[in-house]
Amino acid sequence: MLPGRGPNGRAAALARLLGTRIAWTPVGDGEFFCPGCGGDRNYQRLAGHRRFCLLGVPVLPRGETGPVIECAACRRHFGTDVLDHPTTTRFSAMLRDAVHTVALAVLAAGGTASRAALETATATVRAAGFEDCTEEQLASLVDALAADTGRITGEPCAAGLAIELHEALDPLAPHLAAPGRESILLQAARIALADGPYTPAERDTLATVGAALTICTDDITRLLESARTPS
């Protein structure tokens, strides 16, 4: 049998004569976290149109194909669900804001009269990215939060505060591994413990934080108890 005349050779020759090609058209752009590059990159959103080709020349339309995301750096294509993952910059901001909100919630539950609690909360918020945060700023924000909600220190986590916690933590939780979610709860627990054992209001607030982070009840209890034991 002559080279190229077998079944595989005939299939290859036919593929060169006839085939389907996709023509991509840019329909949007932006910045995303590229799974291929492992970092923030620019992207183009592409819409595809299939064409039946004869000798490499498009002759008939064959319909549309789903949009894809093309990385401007590595040129790989991904499904549009890749845009659900926040960029590194956005993720850092979400984490910073979440820690800030949690610290305020715990202080609101236990009050700002304790210097130790304020110091611990301030150090936690600074480490999260608000490097210029001061104890006075946190105390003022807690007072403003109490005035806005009509909440009295020592009360269980009110509906308004619970909503704020969920708004800060719900978008973040799916992008954090279990150790990351547990770390936020443990940071909150250490703020609450800075001035003594948990109060009922602090426990209620910490339980709300854990639930918003999708940590199960048993693990919340375990983590709150482990925070009481110095490492």
TrEMBL record:
Q: Which InterPro entries match?
A: DjlA_N, TerB-like
* Domain annotation Co-chaperone DjlA N-terminal: ranges: 97-222
Q: What is this protein called?
A: TerB family tellurite resistance protein
Source species taxonomy: Bacteria, Bacillati, Actinomycetota, Actinomycetes, Kitasatosporales
